[in-house]
Write a structure and sequence with these properties.
The chain is α+β, with helices and mostly antiparallel strands. It contains 6 helices and 7 strands. A hairpin with a 2-residue loop joins β6 and β7 (181-187). The model has no long low-confidence stretch (mean pLDDT 96).
Length: 202
């Protein structure tokens, strides 16, 4: 692994994570190319930003649970190939109930050149520090639907408040949000804004 990248759990001991693309629990229904270990990797700058965010979240009674950080380009390429395969229905109901596979790219839920591959983008959510329970957000990670957009209608007041908490925490710590996905944040001062890496997470 490059010297400027780290395992986030080593930089932030005790952080919670569930690297979805290293598991079967993602929209492809299988572990994804380049994710050889269930760990979250990112630039040192991303880790520092997340350390600030963890402190801000704790002051409100929340912890952070990370789903994805650095994403190898080979994983993005795998998403492209998968989107062109015949629909088998295995993950459609949960992850893209109202669109076709190919529309994931057209509608901005998946990109052929992902900010994740630059190493300073993270997918994450909040959990209650007192109970350990995930905070309700009105939809799960990688639900590719309008209900996942910031400002979406059709979610509860509690869901909307939790999304606002996450956005406030992340933006106050130097991250920018992404309109289509409430869980997706990119470090504004990212160290590699034009480089897309492809080393495996191992």
């Amino acid at each position: 692994m490059r010297d400027d990248f780290v395992f986030i759990d080593e930089l932030l001991p005790g952080v919670r994570w569930d690297a979805k693309y290293a598991t079967w629990d993602n929209f492809t229904g299988t572990p994804v190319d380049g994710y050889l270990a269930n760990r979250i990797v990112g630039t040192r700058a991303l880790g520092s930003g997340l350390e600030r965010a963890r402190g801000a979240a704790a002051s409100l009674g929340f912890g952070l649970l990370l789903w994805d950080g650095y994403r190898p380009q080979r994983a993005v390429d795998r998403f492209l190939r998968w989107s062109k395969q015949p629909e088998d229905g295995r993950t459609k109901r949960r992850h893209y109930p109202n669109i076709d596979r190919a529309e994931m790219f057209e509608k901005g839920y998946v990109a052929a050149r992902s900010g994740h591959s630059r190493g300073s983008t993270v997918d994450l959510t909040l959990f209650d520090l007192a109970t350990g329970e995930l905070s309700p957000m009105g939809g799960d990670h990688d639900l590719m639907d309008a209900i996942s957009h910031h400002g979406a209608t059709g979610i509860t007041q509690v869901d909307a408040a939790n999304r606002r908490h996450l956005r406030s925490i992340m933006e106050s710590c130097g991250f920018s949000s992404y309109d289509c996905e409430w869980w997706h944040y990119t470090l504004e001062d990212e160290p590699f804004p034009n480089t897309y890496f492809d080393f495996a997470i191992a």
